[in-house]
Amino acid sequence: MTNKFHLTFDVDLHLLWTGTYHRTALGELSRGEFGLKVGLPRVLEVLKEENVSATFFIPGKIGELFPNKVKEIHDAGHEVAVHGYAHERWNELSYEEEYELIKKSKQILENITGQEIDGFRSPAWSLNDKSVEILKELDFKYDSSLMANDYELYHLRTDDYMTLDGELHFGEETDLIEIPVSWELDDFPYFCFTGKNVGLRSTKDVLECWKLEVDSSIKFGSYFTLTMHPQIIGRGPRILMLQELIQYIKSYKDIKFITLKEAFEYGRNKDGIIL
Questions:
Q1: What are the residue boundaries of the structural domains of the chain, listed by start?
Q2: CATH 3.20.20.370 holds for 3-273
Q3: pTM above 0.85, yes or no
């Protein structure tokens, strides 16, 4: 069995601060600028050196602000997918607002890349109870925002919810698949200082954690999904750490780096998308 490894990048840039934290001070905006001018080029260079294709989740607003950067990512052979419109507080959106923002962002990115956009990841991994229905209606093939597995894909259901008195309801299973994520495999909690989140962990410690996750994925599953942000992973020591991790993964036999769209294609070619 070939184990599949996915490197994914959330290209939030300036919107991480203005959308999620409602901060527009120059300090926060400069962190987004670092991601644009320093972090993203370093990420693309490492991927080129290692001959690895990745998936970039991009807010529609970033497509409007920096279409040439989105095109550069696409032209380098990477997958482009939707990451909200302006990194909104997703759980505060109405059904109508969510639908329109996803539809708008999908169209923006498709206009830039000239290709259909198949994947979605919600800002802060915060889907709503009707999100699956919206994604199906807008013809998405997969989502990557949830955590009901660690190293395997699974079907998404519509209308899952829990009532205030603790009643748990599971909806109907769909053909939309989830490519699961986890905070353990995200650079943000380890490295990003926000005040509430201290971050600032040693790259040595994080590399060791991620290597153990790689080892575990080989033993327990088929898929490994790492989430990163150019303005975070793009700092000097961390980009070197990422390259070392890629080389560590390559030391295993029978592994393959693929995009999330390719992960969906692998799953779809098997019965019921259950691997």
A1: 3-273
A2: yes
A3: yes
